[in-house]
Amino acid sequence: MKFNIAVAQSGGPTAAINASLCGVFEGAQGFECIDRVYGSINGIEGIINNNLINLKQVITTAHDKDLLIKTPSTVLGSCRYKLANADENELDYVRIIDTFRRNNIKAFFYIGGNDSMDTVMKLDDYMKKNNIDIKVVGVPKTIDNDLPETDHTPGFGSAAKYVATSLQEIIRDSRVYSIPSITIVEIMGRDAGWLTASSCVLRANGEPAPHMIYLPEREFSVEKFLDDIRLAQQKYKAVVVAVSEGIDCSGGKTGVVDAFGHSYLSGVGKYLENIARERIGCKVRSIELNVMQRCGSHIASLTDLEEAERIGAEAVKTAVEYGLSGVMMTFKRISNNPYRVDIVPCDVRDCANKAKYFPVEWINDEGNNVTIDALNYFLPLIKGEPVIEYKNGIPVHFRLNQ
């Protein structure tokens, strides 16, 4: 007997999350038992409110699929909705099950990060406790690369490539004048410094900058930061520094939190700019890459997009063919050169509400840069360039509402 499946996207956007959506859609085509693939509008909120669309009615051609894979952000919309514990408030769960049953949905795929895996875990617990045969599978996504159990996350490689490319262009800009200067680039990374650390890939092309890299995994000292800059100025006229937004530095926390209790961070770069200008006295500029690093599809990693699509398709196989639920799909790296990964499921309880930090052994003794091991880890993830379609000189994006 045929049944339907549903897929939703959650959390912050990336350049590869729609590739995973397309992977789920394509993976379903390989099973005759699957009839419709529903897309949930605005994450789990769409399931709660029965706000679904039939993806077969909007993804109708090979061109649609190709365009969707290369389109950044969440085409279905996103959310940061935290499900209550079912034993405290069951209302959302009752509405979710009603949507699933009303639409004959037997498997649900949630594409997201740490907090989205919390939703997968809670839904799976509820299904099993109440003997409801609906599979729930998590598909990883985050530019922060901080999900445990997986070698890396879809979306990270493209964000890392954008960060490195932007930094290289900033470096070119900073070197044009004869006067000494300091440029501080603030990069996303609330708890973990993966994305900031990935700026080291410029070394592979002989670029010495960024000259210092500061991550939240190591204690940060403003005085040492200033000393590091002074030392670098003895060798470089234009000093470029990469800092994670999550470093423990006065002036970097807003005190505002999201639904999951995470702080919104901002201002670390500007704070350090003001201190450096006052204490060192040369030309100082800070640049916050902000949301641009999440959706830079024009400089996406082909490896990232291909893996994102592949892991989405494997999620469908895991639920429908293998009958697994309460799992998150993961990458297991086999080798760096040649680069090879396997895709395997892990218990979502090992990922939900947990963070994977940048390895401290990959940070140098001075705490202001990263080692060759980090470079070898990052390089395969940014390889390859997708062929982008342009119209009137601008990249073309797939949109549900034209």
Kindly describe this structure.
With about 400 residues, the chain is an alpha/beta fold. It folds into 2 domains: about 5-155 and about 300-355, Rossmann fold; about 155-295, Phosphofructokinase domain (Rossmann fold, 3-Layer(aba) Sandwich), CATH 3.40.50.460. It contains 11 helices and 15 strands. The strands form 4 sheets. The chain has a 7-stranded mixed β-sheet, with helices on both faces. Strands 7-8-6-11 form a 4-stranded parallel β-sheet, with helices on both faces. Strand 7, helix 8 (about 220-235) and strand 8 form a beta-alpha-beta unit. Helix 1 crosses helix 10. The radius of gyration is 22 Å and the shape is elongated. The chain starts with a strand and ends in a 7-residue tail after the last strand. About 50% of the residues are buried. Mean pLDDT is about 95; it is low at about 250-265.
